[in-house]
Structures are given as C-alpha cells and as structure tokens.
C-alpha cells in the first residue's frame, strides 16, 4: 500500500513538472508578471544613456521642480496690480430686551424676543499706482532665468558624469581584456616552467616565480572586474536603471583644433553656471529697486456695498448702502525694516557680482588647464602606445630566449611585469584624454544641445 502511494506521489510530481515546462515553452512567461524566461542583456548606447539620464535622473527632476517654483514668482508680482475682491456674509440671531412701561407697576416690563438677522458686504480694492510691481516682476523674470540656467548647469553636469562613466566602462572592459591576456601569458609561462622543471632544465625557484606572477595576474584581473562592476553601478544610478546592461564602444570625443582664446570666449558665452550667476546678480539688483520703491506712495480705488436684513437696531438707518473712493498710502517711517531689507538686497547684489567675477576667473583657468592638458595627454597616449608595443615585443623575445635556455625565469617575469604596466598606463592615459576632452566640452557649453527643451515657461 505504501509503495502504491509512493508511486502515485512520484507521478504527481512528474505531472506538475511536465505542465510547468509545457507552459514555459508555449509562451506562458510572456506576461511581465509571470516572466520566467531569461531576457537578453540590454545594450545601451551613449546617446541612449543621455536620454535616460535626462528623463530619469532624480537630481535633474528635483532641479526642474525648483525651476517650476520660480515660474510662480512672477504671479506674485502680477498680483500686486490685480484687484482684491471680497464677499462677507453673516447669518445670526439677535436677542432684544424691551424696557418696562412707566404706568405698569405690577409686571416686570421685560420681554425677550429672537430676531433673525443677516448681513452681507461686497468690497473691491483696485490698485491704481503701485510702482513696486515693476521691479518685483523683473526680479521674478530674472529668477526664472537663473533657475533655468541652473537646470541647464545641473543637467550638463549630469550628462558629463554619464559620459565619463560610460567611457570608464569601455576602458575597464579593455582593461579586463588586457588583464585576461596577461593571465593567459602567465599561465603559459607557468606550464612551460613546470615542463622545464620536469625535464631538468629549470629549478624550483623558476616555478615559484612563475606561480607568483600567475597569481598576481589573476588578482589584477579580479580587481579590474570589480572596478567594472563599481563604475557600472554608478552609471546605472545616474540613468535610473538596473546595473545589468551592456555598452557599445562610442566614437572618441573630438578635440577640435582652435586657438585658446576661442575656447575661452565660448566658455564665457555658453557656460550655464556662469550665466546663472549673472542672472542672480540682476535679480538682486531688481530686488533692491523693489525695496527702494516702497518710498513711493500707492493709490488704490476702493468700493464697498453693505446690506442688512432689518433696520430695527439701526435707528434712522438704511437697509443698504455703498461707498466708493480712492486711498492714498504714503509710507513715512517704517522703523528699520525697509532700510535693512534694502541693505540686504544690495549686499546680495554685491555678493553675486563678486561670485560672478571669481567664477569667470576660475572658468578661464580651468579652460586653459584642460586645453594644455589635452595636448599633453595626446602626446602621452602616442608615447605609451609605442611603449606597449616595445614591451610586447620584448616579452615575446625574452620568452623565446627562455625556451632556448638563454634567459632566466626572472627575465621573463620582469618582462611580463613591464608589459602589464605598459598596457595599464596606455589605457589609463587614453581614459584621461577622453575625460579631459569631455571636461573642456562641458566648460564651453557643448552639452547644451542634449538638454531638455525648456523654451516654454511651464513645467513639463
């Protein structure tokens, strides 16, 4: 009986497994919620990375919110010349006490009644003269421009980081390929040393040295793979996607030959950070004018209409009445509030001016530094490429000499170490060159054509 139950249980498990496989092969996993199949690795180009960062990066989204908030400031200035209209309605019950009649001595003479009463009033206040609205509106417009330039600056910085991480991923892939080749060479040398030891043509020290070089090459390869995982995680964080994706080698960043003064002029004209500081100074100047305009009187046209339900409590009064006229407000003395506000605004304008001047100097220095650094790195890459070829030829020659018994294992290990160093230096210089070119492009505003379009004054 137990044997029969065991066979039935096995048959049941086999049936369940068969149905699962059948549903999987028939496309049961087509739904995202029930997707059990392994999807192919997603390949992202550099342009795709730019688009993903522009739409998914939360830093850019947060800066967009700041830009949107600044667009609301101009409505505060517009509201200074818009009418103020209010409607007030009251519905209440009033208690009325009647005094006693003089001829009546036996009664108390007090009677209580509840009289329903409602009241409503309509009031209008329309500014006629309010000079402060003009600098307030200009300050709001400058603040909008400042936040837009700040958004462009944050976006270009983010896209620059995306480009740097993308080229770093490509470089790390090349580094892994080079380290894999070094590991293969070290493994080949180790086998050769072991074979020569077995034939009596080498000593144990040769094998130990070969093993040491092999383990060092394997550790270097592992380090390169871990570095690739780290930079891919950083890039995925900027793009807002999973770190499991592939890349395609992009074209090398182009460094156009032009005089240094051309790059400096382009940086002054197109750098988003510098332009944002200029708009900040304009906004501070307009804010100063706004506080100074508080000395100018304001004139408002006011009108109101009032209505009561009962004239019992207003002797000789009217049930409804209206008023209209103009109100002149002349500030004479407001303590220290206005003076302090003006001085703070002037100080903020001076601060923005100093920041702009210093940022301009720093920008010029960075452009000059990147310009000459690119030229140095260009020649360094060419030199290191020749060094790598020489180190590769030297290693092949020393390896052949070791096979012939002319060179020692120490010579082979030394040549391999020099080759590994030459490969790393060449790839590192190439990455530094790409980063320097991208940095110069960022300083001169070359990333602006990749940014989100913000020509309309609304939140997208």
Tell me what the structure shows:
With 460 residues, the chain is of the alpha+beta class. It has a domain at 48-81 and 132-294 and 341-450: Outer membrane efflux proteins (OEP). The protein is built from ten helices and six strands. The chain has helices at 2-25, 46-56, 58-71, 73-78, 133-198, 204-239, 260-270, 272-292, 337-403, 409-443; strands spanning 42-44, 84-98, 111-129, 245-247, 298-308, 320-329. The strands form two sheets. A four-stranded antiparallel β-sheet has the order 2-3-5-6, with no helix packed on it. Helix 5 runs antiparallel to helix 6 (204-239) and helix 5 packs antiparallel against helix 8 (272-292). Residues 24-39 and 452-460 have low confidence and may be disordered.
In short:
With 460 residues, the chain is an alpha+beta fold.
Q: Supply Rg.
A: 41 Å
How large is the count of helical segments? 10
The CATH topology of the domain at 48-81 and 132-294 and 341-450 is what? Outer membrane efflux proteins (OEP)
State the total count of DSSP E strands.
6
Strand content: 5-15%
Order of helices and strands: HEHHHEEHHEHHEEHH
Coarse shape: elongated
- CATH 4th-level superfamily of the domain at 48-81 and 132-294 and 341-450: Outer membrane efflux proteins (OEP)
Separation of the first and last Cα atoms = 72 Å
Uncertain runs:
24-39, 452-460
State the share of residues found in helices, binned by percent.
Answer: 55-70%
Q: Summarize the biggest pleated sheet.
A: 4 strands, antiparallel
> Residue-averaged pLDDT, rounded?
80
Structural class, please?
alpha+beta
């Amino acid at each position: 009986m137990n044997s029969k139950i065991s066979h039935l249980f096995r048959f049941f498990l086999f049936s369940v497994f068969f149905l699962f496989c059948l549903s999987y092969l028939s496309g049961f996993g087509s739904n995202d919620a029930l997707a059990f199949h392994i999807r192919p690795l997603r390949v992202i180009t550099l342009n795709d990375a730019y688009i993903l960062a522009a739409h998914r990066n939360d830093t850019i989204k947060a800066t967009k919110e700041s830009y949107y908030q600044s667009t609301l400031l101009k409505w505060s200035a517009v509201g200074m010349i818009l009418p103020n209209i209010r409607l007030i309605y009251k519905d209440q019950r009033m208690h009325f006490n009647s005094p006693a009649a003089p001829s009546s001595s036996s009664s108390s003479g007090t009677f209580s009644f509840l009289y329903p009463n409602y009241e409503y009033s309509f009031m209008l206040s329309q500014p006629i003269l309010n000079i402060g609205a003009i600098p307030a509106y200009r300050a709001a417009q400058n603040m909008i421009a400042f936040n837009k330039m700040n958004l462009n600056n944050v976006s270009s910085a983010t896209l620059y980081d995306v480009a740097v991480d993308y080229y770093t991923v490509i470089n790390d892939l090349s580094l892994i390929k080079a380290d894999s080749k070094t590991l293969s060479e070290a493994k080949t040398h180790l086998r050769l040393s072991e074979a020569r030891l077995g034939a009596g043509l080498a000593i144990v020290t040769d094998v130990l040295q070969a093993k040491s070089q092999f383990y060092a090459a394997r550790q270097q390869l592992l380090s390169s793979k871990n570095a690739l995982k780290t930079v891919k995680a950083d890039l995925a964080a900027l793009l807002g996607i999973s770190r499991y994706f592939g890349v395609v080698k992009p074209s090398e960043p182009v460094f156009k030959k032009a005089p240094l003064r051309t790059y400096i002029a382009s940086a002054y004209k197109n750098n988003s950070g510098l332009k944002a500081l200029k708009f900040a100074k304009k906004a501070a100047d307009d804010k100063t004018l706004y506080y100074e305009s508080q000395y100018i009187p304001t004139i408002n046209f006011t009108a109101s209409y009032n209505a009561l339900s009962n004239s019992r409590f207003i002797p000789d009064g009217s049930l409804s009445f209206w008023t209209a006229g103009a109100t002149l407000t002349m500030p004479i003395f407001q303590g220290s509030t206005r003076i302090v506000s003006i001085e703070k605004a002037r100080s903020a304008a001076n601060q923005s001016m100093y920041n702009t001047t210093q940022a301009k100097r720093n920008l010029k220095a960075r452009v000059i530094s990147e310009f000459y650094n690119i030229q140095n790195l260009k020649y360094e890459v060419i030199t290191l490429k020749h060094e790598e070829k020489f180190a590769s030829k030297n290693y092949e020659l020393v390896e052949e000499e070791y096979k012939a018994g002319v060179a020692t294992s120490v010579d082979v290990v030394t040549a391999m170490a020099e080759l590994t160093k030459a490969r790393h230096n060449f790839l590192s210089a190439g990455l530094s060159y790409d980063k320097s070119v991208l940095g110069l492009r960022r300083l001169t505003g070359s990333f602006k054509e990749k940014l989100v379009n913000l020509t309309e004054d609304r939140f997208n």
